[in-house]
Design a protein that fits this description.
It contains 12 helices and 14 strands. The radius of gyration is 19 Å and the shape is globular. Helix 1 links the parallel strand 1 and strand 2. Helix 3 runs parallel beside helix 4. The longest helix is centred in the N-terminal third of the chain and has 21 residues.
Length: 332
């Protein structure tokens, strides 16, 4: 099977791409590579891999030649960046991805998986599942929800459409991110011997390891159509619905760093049920946050992973905006 992945140069994409290649898939990688081409150096030249440097807003029908399925994960990747560049977030996270889904259907692609986010649920007191009413609080979350609404009606007997609402991801990746809660806490534990918690830390966040997110996306790609067709799946596990303070305590226990409370309470808080993906597809994660904290902390100590500027998403996008790079990429 040949799979086209948009956003394959991102945090999850740089893990998903080699995982699919090792599993025998051919991969067409479409990415604007604003974090550098070296994030894909581990797969460039591999058998079955093709790289197309392009902005998702400019996806060309020619990219679909010989393709059987699409995993659409190109996006402005988080809430703060979405508020920094709201117009671009709507263009990419919503409009471009709906356009890609329509092109895929028009050109006979059999499968389409939209990678969305658990952030569409917003602040909730109760445990929510896929039938719960979304309550997006940010531009990022709202754009993801509109993309879901735009692609799900495209499902047909010849075009299987599935939405994956991912929990907050963590762990080491070739395109590293230090703006994600587990990774951010581990980094400040290394740099300052401190772990910062916004507000009281009582807000909930569902979590999933980056490698497990790749496993789940492959599972959705391979599942029988009648199970995943026009269906939404929360991707994570019930056991990894954490309060932020409990994440901080685990990082502190492993690294010895001190917990520091600061700032205002994050409005986003949600606990998810992952029964559906567990019961229908048999998905259970292989990794827990303790594994990732130990791995990342060790890599930081050894200098394998470094806190480069490009691994801080908002900071990097601000730099690109100042340089006018985002506009130039669209015209490539």
């Amino acid at each position: 099977m040949r799979v086209l992945i948009t956003g394959c140069g991102g945090y999850i994409g740089t893990t998903l791409t080699p995982y699919l290649l090792r599993s025998g898939y051919d991969v067409v990688c479409v990415d604007w590579l604003i974090f550098g081409e070296d994030v894909l150096s581990h797969v460039i030249g591999e058998k079955g891999f093709k790289l197309v440097k392009a902005d998702e807003r400019n996806v060309d029908p020619a990219y679909f030649e010989g393709v059987d399925a699409v995993i659409d994960m190109a996006s402005i990747p988080n809430d703060p960046t979405g508020e920094l560049i709201p117009d671009l977030t709507w263009e990419i996270n919503f409009k471009a991805r709906v356009r890609t889904a329509n092109l895929a259907r028009k050109h006979g692609i059999e499968r389409y998986v939209l990678v969305s986010s658990a952030s569409v649920y917003g602040r909730r007191g109760e445990v929510v599942n896929e039938t719960s009413e979304p309550n997006p609080l940010t531009t990022y979350a709202k754009a993801n929800l509109e993309a879901e609404k735009g692609v799900l009606p495209l499902a047909s007997k010849d075009f299987t459409v599935t939405v994956a609402r991912l929990a907050t991801v963590y762990g080491v990746s070739r395109r590293m991110r230090f703006d994600l809660v587990v990774n951010a806490m581990t980094l400040t534990a290394y740099l300052e011997n401190k772990i910062y918690v916004e507000g009281d830390g009582m807000q909930f966040r569902p979590l999933i390891h980056v490698y497990d997110s790749a496993r789940a996306l492959k599972l959705l790609l391979e599942a029988p159509s009648d199970i995943v067709q026009a269906n939404v799946f929360n991707v994570g596990s019930n056991e990894q619905n954490y309060r932020i303070i409990d994440v901080a305590r685990e990082v502190s226990r492993i690294t010895g760093a001190t917990i520091v409370f600061r700032g205002e309470v994050d409005r986003r808080s949600y606990r998810l049920s992952f029964n559906k993906i567990r019961d229908l597809l048999g998905f259970t994660p292989l990794y827990i946050i303790q594994d990732a904290v130990k791995h990342l902390y060790n890599d930081l100590l050894l200098g394998i992973v470094k806190p480069e500027e490009r691994w801080f998403t908002v900071r990097w996008y601000k730099k690109l905006i100042e340089e006018g790079a985002l506009i130039r990429v669209k015209g490539d």
